Structure prediction request, 202 residues.
Amino acid sequence: MARVHEDSVREEQRQRLLDSAIRAIGRSGFDSVRLRDIAADAGVTTGMIQYYFDSRQAFLVAALEKVGLDQINSWSQIREVETDPWTRLTRLIAACADRNPGIAIERSAAWLEFCACACRHTELREILSAVNQRWREVVLETIQLGCASGVFRPVLDEETITDAIIAMLDGCEMSIGSQAGLVTSDEARAVATQVAEHLLNR
Prediction:
């Protein structure tokens, strides 16, 4: 029993370090972020990071992988509990545009850095590809469910609508993460929902 508790504490600490790394990567970038800044954010020493991870590269790759895995887990939970296609789709859209501006910016910035780093790091490219594929599957499945049940009467084919919604959300992520001021997370959610409703002729 003590071993189980110890393993739980270790995993909790590891996840906390990864969350701190995600925030730091969003602020400073994958290649520029410093371990001591991450340690300071997490309230630990750099030695603690080295205890859990073999190298700086392995640590930062694990952090960006967590960004993708957290997204997949969020989408999977929505898929499991929402049987109504439209409600599920709107919740999937909302999951990409958090209502808390600070969290939305932080998450979008980390996602943008993930995408940028994938151009330079093969191991990240493979992870990013898997995350994007899973995202597309969940959205497409939701649209197909709505079409089959007659809830959606789309003006375009299901694959094209899926790609259009994803491309629109990707653009919103770029604006939010870059803090360019083109669109807020609330505006992104509203616009994406309205466009999806029009394309699906709901």
User: Anything to note?
Assistant: The radius of gyration is 19 Å. The chain has one domain: 56-200. Residues 56-200 form a domain with the Tetracycline Repressor; domain 2 fold (CATH 1.10.357.10). DSSP finds nine helices and no strands in the chain.
